[in-house]
Fold DNA primase large subunit PriL.
Amino acid sequence: MEPLHARYPFLARSREAVEAAAVDLGEIVATDETVTARALERVESAITDGTVGEPHRRTRVELLSYPVARVLVSLVDVHICTRKYAQAEAEAAYDRFTEEFETTTELKSTQRETLDRTELLAEFDLASAVRDAGDGYRVEVGAYLDLAADQRGDSWRLVNRPLADGQVRITAEELHVLLKQAIRHRVTEGLPFNVPDAIADELTAEVDRLEEVLSELELTREIDTVVPELFPPCMKSLLDRVQKGEHLEHHSRFAIATFLVGIGMTTDEIVDLFQVNPGFGEEATRYQVDHIRGETSPTEYSTPACSTMQSYGDCVNMDDLCEAISHPMGYYEQKLDDTDEEELVDWREDEGDEEADA
């Protein structure tokens, strides 16, 4: 087991190093608390901070914590946990390989073994799909579409890219972003998987800890997309009641308001929604929404977790996805992830189009 294996545990040769050492994961989780603790840190930090934490000073511990972390993610088996974990591993690798790519040949000869761009391209079968173009790179369109599919921003859309002879022109920095995506795909691959009961039983405390963290956190990226048909059933119901002019209890108003704030709606847009509600007062509603978003208070309030929604009787019409999700924002995130971006029609844009047509 070499330091390079620990820095890039997703590499085929890193996996081979673990196999060559005849490591028994069942024995590891039963007897090596240091590895298990580092594995828990990898996943918990991914959820809370978007990182995998500080690497352990011992190569063996750092490398073995990766397969154990994957076991933990599989046992938790929540989409948001899997996504955040894979993204954090990819971000950590990105930070490392971009730094190593910038290291000069002279320095490399005196340092630890490093990973170069050619090796990383070959790892993901991209060596023949990527060509050095002097002032950038050319990537075969099929590989580009696969790796750029999840990138945000119009600049990544194929129609906005220089395309010639079936190849897309990109910069070195953009190539690194695509490599990060390839790593995320690799980490995600196979997750979750079935874990033997003997191993699962040894990790009960760690899984309980992760489930607690997931239930307490606002599991959301920077969302700015309002697609009501993708809302979780509880929020669909509350929104429907708002639009029908029904009276909502304080906890229900708080829940739908925090959710709408969390998905990117402005105070003006939320105030407009609540105008049809009995007892509506624009000034009071505006103050409450600004208070929730932290503009008139020291705290930015989060959408209540599913357990809180259940305790107040706001959890209704549960579907299959609800059974696997612990937070309304997590539900909405997964629905957005599972929907083709071109099919996502923001409710606010749709409203604007209707007004323009009128």
